[in-house]
Amino acid sequence: MVIAVRYLVRPMRIEDIPQVMEIERESFPTMWPPTAFRRELQQNRLAHYIVVVEDNPSVPHQAEPSTPGPIGRFLGEIKQMLAGDEDVPLPPPDQRPELVVGFIGIWMMADEAHIVTIATRGTHRGHGIGEALLISAIETAQARSQPLVTLEVRVSNDAAIALYEKYGFQEVGRRPRYYSDNHEDAYVLTIESVLTRRYRARFDELRAAHARRWGDFAAI
Fold this sequence. Notes:
220 residues, 8-stranded mixed sheet, globular
């Protein structure tokens, strides 16, 4: 069955940060400190963040503001630093022209593509969004000719482990007391190479099956 709702997969933007932080707080309520997304996007050359957004055609998009001059940009940056991304007021989800429904972060290290975080908005779980994010992360590694993809996952997170195993991740280690909230262990999972012909063929099959079930996630 194909779901009619269409989602857009794209790189995270600065203006997405308040919504992404909203999802992070919902998904990881005991996490501290929160991720410094602005620094990740602007200063961390290793970081690649991707979001899935749902367009709401009933809410008009705001017109692009005119480009401010140097003084205007300076004052705007000072205002953002003083306020903080977490203090930006957000309208209710159904009143936003674009609703961020999930995000994933990948660090492109010298010898691996490491998935550092992935989360889906609670109201949108079970709709293939987490899998779409994982697909995008693997595609990002392939596009940058990075064969090795790694991540950590809670040992109790059976649903996530099943998804990762479906895409070829294998357990290569265990980090005792890795999570600070409850000191739960983490499995270290790895795909040895996402660049081989065999893996690409299997990956294409999985991606096509995802599209048949959940509809086309348009990517830009």
